[in-house]
Amino acid sequence: MSGAPEAVAESAAPASALDQEAEAIPLPGDVAAPAGDAPAGEGGEVVRPGDIPEAQAQQIAAMYRPSIGIVVNGVADGVLPNWKLTEAERGQLTDSMALACAYWFPDGYIPPKWVALFGALYTGYSIVNARRHDDGSWVPRAVVKVKRDAAATASPGKGDGAGGEV
Question: Where are the domains of the chain?
Fold first, then answer.
């Protein structure tokens, strides 16, 4: 079986002009490679376009920490109270989420599609949290009894075309 990929590669027909042209078209997200060596970062590492040096990412993450902390505490208390997240766990989660935001949104601008997603998540959180008592217990599920019309339930399907005939 180890020879199968080589056999396939050798037997492949040469690419047509159309195939070569299609391969030359850049796909969305393709980034042209910089000419020459990329500049070195603070520690001498190669910095690619879009990369953020670690020190700068930590500074940006510090900007996000207060907001992320509120979200983490709200979810921990309102949605996951049985997990009993410790302060250390909440801090770790806050730090990692803030760093993720620093890499995703380094300039502090959150695009509208992300704002809409965060808004939908917050709405879901609000609905879940509204079903809790102040002591943390859940509000019982409401059972709605449907009142039926007496005439409609007296003799359903007795040849009146209402269904129920066998």
Answer: 54-130
